[in-house]
Amino acid sequence: MKKSTLNQRLLLILILATGFASGLGAQNVDSVFKVAREAAFERKDYTTAIRLSKEVLCVSPGYTDVITFLGRLYTWNKQPDSARLYFNEALRQQPDSENAFAGLADMEYWAGNYGPALVVAGNGLKVFPRSETLLLRKAQVLYAQKEYAAAIPVLDTLLQVHRKNSEARRLAVQIQDHIAKNAIGVRYDYIHFDQQFPDPWHLAAIDYTRHTKAGAFTARVNYANRFAAGGLQYELESYPRFSKTFYGYLNMGYSDNKVVFPKWKAGASLFANLPRAFEAELGVRYLYFNRDVFMYTLYAGKYYNSFLFGARTFLTPQTSSITQTYSVMARYYWGGPNDYVGVLLGSGLSPDDVRSNVQLNSGYKMRNYNGEINARFSVQQLNIVTANFSLLNQEYLPGQKGNQLQFGLGYIRRF
User: What is the residue range of the signal peptide feature (predicted)?
Assistant: First the structure.
């Protein structure tokens, strides 16, 4: 037996011995309750936790926190009838117990009883209209029942009050994919150079996206006018889902004008939604002008309160060295997944940036530093507007530096 477990049991024996000898006081009752919680949370020993909790109730039958805890224990022990009995008793003794409402709603939801779960969550929200737990559970039940339109205002309310809830934000994305399986997007970018090129660059794009159970699939046409020439690029892109944890990214593009676009481009990544609101990506990018360019990327991100923080690198193996590109970003969400403002700071060029990846064809290893402000916001759920402004300071020839200013606008209509 582990020393910590032995000490806990000796403590329990002492508490019970002294408590029942003189009547368990409030302090001793709380001590036994603490040992019961440790048994459940640290060792998953629900049988012991149930026994200790019942011993507490023998002395203090009105201890509603313990009654609710017993409901949770029986839920985890897969005994829904007993769990329901204790949750209802807790609500009978304390009709305004948020924990009891949440526990009963959780139990019914996990048991697949969506109707009763929705009723319990609704009754709880009448008493606690801003409850984060009850709002999320109600939205999850509505999602499970495929009542997507009804879930949207629940998530809107939740994210207005509890902006840091990343689970609600992810659920909102999934619901949007169900209620609006199609999207058409347009985008325009204007780039001005103060030194490097005499004429500005103009870029435009139009795309169509279809959301399916397997993931999102996009067809896109890009147009660019730069280097006093115009050309088109054709792209296919997808984000296949593999599980709740993993999804992917696949991209392929072709252009018959390798002056303004790489002739071929491709990309593949594996993404992971990790515990504690972390996310990560491992991938590879390929560009072909007159030679092959392979770039490998690593990304890590973390949701914290209403923010997303992330860092990315692109590594390009070369004959004598490895070219490195770095960037860090932060976003602030004020609503759903399509309502945020962000900043990005970096060094180097990204192969994913259609505005500048053509410059990776330069024979000179360019040093540059860039910063960007971007925003995305939704209008009546199905209309999404994007905007960004960036500044890039670049050494385009040895000892010669110039600035390029970029401004972009985009619009997406989901239907």
Answer: 1-26
